[in-house]
Write a structure and sequence with these properties.
Layout lengths: L1 H35 L6 E7 L3 H17 L2 E7 L5 H13 L5 E4 L11 H7 L11 H8 L9 H13 L7 E5 L6 H10 L3 E5 L6 H5 L4 E4 L17 E4 L3 E4 L7 E4 L4 H4 L5 E2 L6 H26 L18 H7 L5 H7 L7 E3 L5 E3 L2 H5 L7 E7 L9 H15 L4 E5 L4 H5 L7 E2 L2 E4 L1 H5 L5 H25 L2 H8 L2 E2 L2 E2 L3 H10 L11 H8 L3 E6 L3 E3 L9 E3 L10 E3 L1 E3 L4 H8 L3 H10 L1 E5 L4 E3 L6 H8 L6 E5 L4 E4 L14 H11 L4 E9 H16 L5 E6 L1 H7 L12 H4 L3 H19 L5 E6 L6 H13 L4 E5 L1 H4 L5 H11 L15 H13 L3 E4 L1 H12 L7 E4 L19 E10 L4 E6 L18 E2 L6 E2 L3
Parallel strand pairs: 1-2, 1-3, 4-5, 4-6, 6-7, 7-10, 13-28, 13-29, 14-27, 14-28, 20-23, 29-30, 30-31, 32-34, 33-35
Antiparallel strand pairs: 8-9, 11-12, 12-26, 15-16, 16-26, 17-18, 19-24, 21-22, 24-25, 26-27, 34-35, 36-37
Helix pairs in contact: 1-6, 1-10, 2-10, 6-7, 6-10, 14-31, 17-23, 18-20, 22-23, 25-28, 26-28, 28-29
Length: 939
Amino acid sequence: MRIVRKLLRLSKDLADHLERDIRDVLRDKVATFTKKLPAFKPRLAIVQVGCREDSNVYIRMKLKAASEIGIDAQHVQYPETITQRELLMKLQRLNNDPTIHGIIVQMPLDCVNEIDTHLITDSVSPEKDVDGLNTINEGRVAVGEMTGFLPCTPNGCIELIKRTGVPIAGANAVVLGRSKIVGTPVAELLKWNHATVTVCHSKTLNLSEQTKKADILVVAIGKPELVRGDWIKPGAVVIDCGINAIQDPTKISGQRLVGDVCYEEAKQVASYITPVPGGVGPMTVAMLMANTVQSAENAYKKLLKMSWDIQVLPLNLKQPVPSDIEIARSQIPKDVSFLASEVGIIPEEVSLYGTKKAKISLSILNRLKNNVDGKYIVVAGITPTPLGEGKSTTLVGLAQSLTAHKNKKAFACLRQPSQGPTFGIKGGAAGGGYSQVIPMEDFNLHLTGDIHAITAANNLLAAQLDARIFHEATQTDAALYERLVPKVKGERKFSKIQQRRLDRLGITKTDPDTLTSEEVGKFVRLNIDPSNVVWTRVVDINDRYLRKITIGQASTEKGFTRETSFSISVASEIMAILALTTGLEDMKERISKMVVAFDKSGNPVTADDLGMTGAMMVLLKDTLEPTLMQTLEGTPVFVHAGPFANIAHGCNSIIADNIALKLVGKDGYVVTEAGFGSDIGMEKFFNIKCRTSKKTPNAIVLVATVRALKMHGGGPPVSAGSSRKEYTEENLELLKKGLPNLMKHISNGTKYGVPVLVSINTHANDTAAEHQMIREASLKHGALACVISKHWSEGGAGAVALADAVIKACSSKYKFKFLYDLGLSIEEKIITIAKEMYGAGSVDFTPRVRVTMSILTDKGYKNLPICMAKTQLSLSGNPDIKGAPTDFKLPVTDLYLSAGAGFIVAIAGDISKMPGLPTRPCVYDIDLNTETGEIEGLF
């Protein structure tokens, strides 16, 4: 008997000792996670419906155990009135949250509505089902596949048996009970541990005869003290999983907890027996914690590896290269939700627009905030021909090469094209050849509607501006006040935006009925000077007849006419704001600051003064989310924002770049674009975009073509379909004369301290000698490398040399510097850009520009960066001057403020914000096939 009692004491301590051992191991493992990734922490969600006290006891036990190990356990409690559909939706959110590693649903569900508990447990993702109750995990156990999460109580039973030292292999094991939670899975686990297993239940005949044969007896039948001492084989190991409340008048509660085994009788026979309570319970919790840590470890390893399991789409290369649209349609894109998953974007961050494009939520930035940024590459170009030199094509080809051929994580970040060029002369902007964004029709037409939202917001502001001028001119102060602050149900109050205007006016009152007549006059009168309105309407097409219009000619407007104009939508300041904003709050602040006019005293009138900030944000809120698309080779692309490059800063959005930099991680690459040549897009990229984003690139890719350099050497004008021999035959002399343009653009890049890589975008008529001449000149004049890239005809494989050069450049150290200090005067900043970037000898400011500079300085805008509006067709302000002119005089003919975007626009020469259609626009080639529904002739 003394030996039996000694064994019994050991069995009572067994679960506690084992639970402590497991807890210590888990605590050490969690500590290793946080050592390498300080922001990482295992997280467990314990979902409870209702508030049963017995469930609360178990939950407190789990929360305590989690806290001791270092697991962040959250008690997610829902009311008893929750419906099945609501609960399923809540669980889906937890499934989609990558920071949650384990989910358990506390049973039973204390709910007044009927809920299918099997459906609920199956709705927990198998990858987060740390209770091991999902049918998929149960099925794995049934077939002996132990790669999923093992059910906690059965696994705890097995661990307890192993700790006794009694061999499981070859033992006769009897399991009394066949429940999904304990009986059936514990029988399977015993079987796969090589025991001979008999499963019994309440309908088994001669039950006690079966249990007497057991070397190992596991009881989980839910009947208090069913198994008596004479049911047990002497020396057997007994695991009691039952917990039942029975009447006991000696207890304060009137009840006590017992197991399914009569403990007092069993302890006289068994060698080991688990007590109730305190036996299997702690082990169940320990196994739950182990599963949670295992799930967290899986996520931790993914974070450390930060790899993409991306499915590359093969290209079917053809010679000669087919049309862009034919190539685009020959490739079947991946479902964008699949692509999002491949690059680490979770479902809750994806808003699908069909199956091939999706908006990505800004919440991803918060989720990935601790990720280290990837390498940052900006693609610019030399001074282009009217047809462009393949900057976007090079960007796409490079991104394809990095991901599909160099096994690097890489994102391409592009601007959304305006419909102006699409239907005008240039055509689409999705890249070309075998380096395209697909579907290219979606890319070039509407996309997800951002430009249309900007158009609507811009024109709503214009409508309110003119309406306000009209109403102030036709109403008294009192009448205006009655309409601006009307009584609603007998109560008059200021809106939030009106209160902000009062604050700016220095009026601290909040009761509209207490304003004096003088204060009312200050509040209602913006006193806009109709001759000094700077805000224009916009439309996203090229329409030359909207460059100057007269509005207000209807008789209802009582003669209040004025001259104004339309700009193309992408020239709207709102588009520039979208590209430069960092989030909703920042965008709202920028929108509020937009100067739309000046009053009769010369003071700026803002969008907020007109009460427009909130209404515009409602129209614009979805535009902040970048659009996810893919290249021909199935690599990821963000398309976002499209500010007019020779009016605004011509770069895609900071938001898209920031998300991409976090997604690729420290060993990845983000390839972004700057509009036109280094003199325009790249200069603004550095001095405007980089100042705002506080990000600087690791390398500059400068795109050059033989065709453009020959044009700069004196070749004839380049036009679509032209086959002039200067461009179809080798002409080294002409090419040599054009090289100074390339040298100037290389010099522009090196002035910022960033490595410059020249990428020769090859055309079919180029020769090896021409390429060699460009290469020698590039290396001689400061380029880190000069490579020949055939991405147009070969896709990513044709850009491997460029990818290698980029990888090498990004590993080198450099010291970035801005071109100018913001503390310089407006005039000094303009002169610095003109001389350093364009090669100008001097700048000619008109008297009007000098007056504007003085006004903007007096109003506190002096320290803003400069956004130069200049022709893209020449380094000078004259589009007809090619090559690399020097010591010319740059005329600055206009100057205006973009306070919301945060820069001052200086107009150099004759720059239109509204392009016109050529004699033969692209519309002649574009058609819809009504039989197939396909678009024809688009690029």
